[in-house]
Each structure stands twice: as C-alpha cells, then as structure tokens.
Amino acid sequence: MPKPTRAVDHRRRRSGRAPAIAAVAVAAEDDGEEHHLNPFLDAAPSSSSSRVQFRKVASRAVWLEEAGAAEVVDSKGKLWLTTGVNRDGKLYYNVEEIGFLAERGALVLLDYEGETIGMEEIYGKIAGGKYGCSWDAFQAYKHLKLLGYIIGRYGVPWTVKRSHTYSVTDASTSVVETDQIQSLNRVGGASNDITKLLKEMCIDDMHPSFEVYLPNSKFKKTSPGDPSFVLCLLSNKPPSREELETVENKFEGIPLKFCHVDNGRVSFLSSNKAALPSLP
Amino acid sequence: MDLPGPRWKKGNDGKDFSALAAANPMSVIVAELKASFISSKPVAVLSGPGGGAILGVEPEQAVILNRAAFGHAVEIAAAQKHWFQLSPEEVFYLCHVLNCIRVESHDKKQMSDKQLWNHFRSMSESFPEMYKAYSHLRFKNWVVRSGLQYGADFVSYRHHPALVHSEFAVVVVPEGAAFGNRCGRMEVWSDLLCALRASGSVAKTLLVLTISSGSCELSSPDCLEQLVVHERTITRWIPQQCREQRSEASRDEANREELISKKESVEFNLWGVILGFSVLSSLLVYKLKFRQ
C-alpha cells in the first residue's frame, strides 16, 4: 500500500534532524532532475508542507522599521547561537533570518502594537529590497542555512563592543542610536537608503552578500574568526574577467564563491585564476 | 522525424504513468486552473530584480497549480495560504494568456499587461524571446521549466514532471532586426556542440527555438503576434553505428539502445566499444542517482 510507505518516509524525514541527512537530501535534489511530489497521487499541499519541521515553541520578535530588523523579545531554543546579531545585550534578526525562521514556525513576528505580521508581509519585506536583502539572496541564505552553514550579512559584525556613556544628552543618544541602526545592516552606511542600494546594484551586478562559516558547534559570535568564504550574488550575466579580478582583489586572502539564483534554484560557482605548468 | 519516445516515470506498482497522464490531459488541467482562479484572481507580488513573483493561493488552488506545474511551492510550516514562486515567463503567461492572476507592484498598485511586460523587459533583455518561446510551448500543452541546470534555457515535459522525464533541452535564439545585436547564441561551433553534448548526456533532445522578429517594436506585448517561432531539433549522427541501419534518420539514443540490446557479440571498432562502455557507465550512474 502506498500510504504506509509514505508514512514511513515522513517519519524518517522528521526524525532525521541531523544536518548531514539534510545535506544528502539537498545534494540529491541538486544533482539530479527536480524531485516532484506527485500531485495526482499524493495529497499534495499537506504532504508538501509536512516536509518542513514544525517547531512547537516559537520565539517572538518585534519589527523595528527604522532599524530594518526585528528585536527578539522572547527567545526559544538555541538558534540565537548562530543566528542574528547582538547589540547592547539585545538580539536582532534581519529580514532573511526572519523569513527563514518564520517559514519553519520558529519565529512569530510582531509589530509595535503586538499584532502578528504574517508571511505575506514578511515576503514583501524581503522581496521589496528595502532592508538590505532580496528574494534571491533569501533563497541562497535558506539553501545554505538548511545545510547547517553559519551565515552573516557581509560587513555586519556579529557583536559590537560599546562603552556606556553616563552623561547622556539628546545629541549623543541620537548618535548612538544612529550607530546602532547602521551596524545592524552594513558598515559604512545604512543600506536602507534605497538610492544608495540601487547605486550599489548598478555599479556592478556582483556584490558581496554573506560571510559564510562552516557548520561548527564551537562557533562564537564574540570571536567568529575569518569566514570560510564570502558569497557574492550574481544576477544578470556571468561576470567578466575584470569584474572577477576587481572583487577578488577586494578580499585578499578570503575565498570567494559566486551564487546564481534562477527562480529559486541556487547554483554555486568558484572561479580561480589558473597557471598551468609548462610540461617537459 | 524519428525522435525517442517519452520516458515515463513509474509508480510503486511498477507501472509507468502514461495512463495516468492520458486520463488527465494537461489542457484540461490548465482549463481547470483558469476556471478556479478566475473568480478570486489571486494577487502576485513581484520578487525583485531578475526574479518573477510570489503568489499566495488557497489550498484547493494550490492543488491545481501543482498539477498544472506552474511555479515552485515554497516549503513552509503550517500555513493557511500556500506560496508559489513564479518565473517571469510564468507570471506573464498567467496574467496575459490565462488572465487568472493579478500582479501588484511594491506600492500595491495593480499592473497592466503592458506595465508588466515592460517591467520584465527592463529586468532582462531577453525576456521577449524567452516569453515567446515559453508561451509557444505552453500553447501546445507542454510543461516548461527552467533548463539552467542542464545548460539550456528551458526543459519541456510531455506532462507533469512527476510523471515523465523532460524530453527536450530548449535553447532560445533571437533572430532579426528588433533584437539588435543580441544574436550571440549558437554562433560558434563550441556553443552548438556544448549544448548538444550537454543535452545528450542527460537524455534530452536539443530543441532550438529561433524567434524571428522582423522589424516589430518590442515595447508592447502586441509584438508577440508578430514574433515567429521556428522549431528545430539538432542531433548527432554517428556513421559507425548506422551502417547496419536501413533507416536514414537513425538516432543517437536509438543506436545506443540497439548496441546494448545486441545479444550476439559483434566486432565493433574502437569508438563503438568506447561508446558502449560510456553508455553502460552512464546507465549505471543514472541508476545510482535515481536510487538516491
């Protein structure tokens, strides 16, 4: 009977929480032709959604529009160890982290009035591009995150040490808050500025998106070390040699990987300068 | 043209899905999709530069959308709505041809077909010919998916991808004045043979769709009526394997199958032997992948 077989499959998938098993599954999907649930035999919608683990306890976070991120007000589980950035003792999630966690039922996002922000609005925030992310970057993030990689936004430190200022004036408070807001997104300027973001995108179609660390149970936000690689998102066309070398020079020493997202399908590429030996 | 037949997938009972496909013609499913969506007209939100849109639908609509093989379902836990990611071609087809979804820009304004057309054109220079190729195949009730993982523009399926393997790796070639200087596809031998080898290695036939433009203006979807699609398949012909065939139009894959099925030991030349080994090893690798 097909049903017991499917039940067994679900049980195995659900129990297989180890990243290695997920890695095998994702690798299998990536190598071969697309895997499709059969919508003519299975109960398609419910069985497709059952592949995503439902977490019984969800953290809660409040969306902060001016920061372009959410402050975690009630944290559950251990996700905070490798997700989100810490500022002044508070944990913040950016939009791709929110999307990833919300899709898995691990996060409930609230507005400042305490109302739940639904998936539609979360997707709108990601796809809108105003908060330092894009739909394609979200797909790449999700792909690596599911494989257990530790992913941070490029240029955004995991933690920031900050000395307390005891004499607080309005001006200094404003400065501190501005610094804090900027440090949630990108060093050297707020990427929430649409014009600036568009400029960045227009300058080249290749921009560093994420700093990626290998799956590592000993990862610490306070001393993350150098990332395993910096991930650059490509959009329209393959990069030219000049573009490749420009970006490579910018990251002397840290490997680069390139990522192309085609309607949700994520492909990764490496490009290395080669010097073939002259054979005898 | 003597092309290899479809490669149906099989169910748990060992029977292939050809009967199931015949009982559910894709044209009927698409008609059901249109009828199901036409009253609610679900709204899709554009997903940013280079992308298509994200569509939220009710569970019953999700079943039909899945069957019609539009979009990719987003995996999400315990949601009332089901989310699909659509490619630009899929978005425009659902809007323009089936007229069963609406698209909103980020400021929540509904977009007309012309606005949507120019949005996608501004995102991708090749959208006109890509969409023309996509809609051409969909009009013939083929299922069309991205072919990038095979080094092609699209792959086309005879029915739902869960029932059958894709038959064609599709490369879209723009031709004519309206496309300007953008005719860089298949113009050097390595491009052509690269596409041919890549599609052959995954058991697909290379289908080149040339979109002729004449001199029409591309700034409106009205130009679609003036774009002409030419279908052409390209195959390798291997003379060593065809000396025993009477048929003039012998096929690469057909010859491979013939080679495998020969019971008597026949003396082949070196290339025949090498090809036989490569076919056998390909089949072995394929089975191993399938087992995963």
UniProtKB/TrEMBL annotation, chain A:
GO terms for cellular component: tRNA-intron endonuclease complex. Residues 48-109 form the tRNA-splicing endonuclease subunit Sen54 N-terminal domain. The keyword Transferase does not apply. It holds the Pfam family tRNA_int_end_N2. One of its GO terms (biological process) is tRNA-type intron splice site recognition and cleavage. Keywords: tRNA processing. The keyword tRNA processing applies. Belongs to the SEN54 family. This is Os09g0504800 protein.
UniProtKB/TrEMBL annotation, chain B:
InterPro entries: tRNA_endonuc-like_dom_sf, tRNA_intron_Endo_cat-like_sf, tRNA_intron_Endonuc_cat-like, tRNA_intron_Endonuc_N, tRNA_splic. It is an enzyme of class 4 (lyase). Residues 127-212 form the tRNA intron endonuclease catalytic domain. GO terms for biological process: tRNA processing; tRNA-type intron splice site recognition and cleavage. Keywords: Endonuclease, Hydrolase, Membrane, Nuclease, Transmembrane, Transmembrane helix. GO terms for cellular component: cytoplasm; tRNA-intron endonuclease complex. It catalyses: pretRNA = a 3'-half-tRNA molecule with a 5'-OH end + a 5'-half-tRNA molecule with a 2',3'-cyclic phosphate end + an intron with a 2',3'-cyclic phosphate and a 5'-hydroxyl terminus. The chain crosses the membrane at residues 268-286. Its EC number is 4.6.1.16. Pfam families: tRNA_int_endo, tRNA_int_endo_N. GO terms for molecular function: nucleic acid binding; tRNA-intron lyase activity. Residues 53-117 form the tRNA intron endonuclease N-terminal domain. Belongs to the tRNA-intron endonuclease family. This is tRNA-intron lyase.
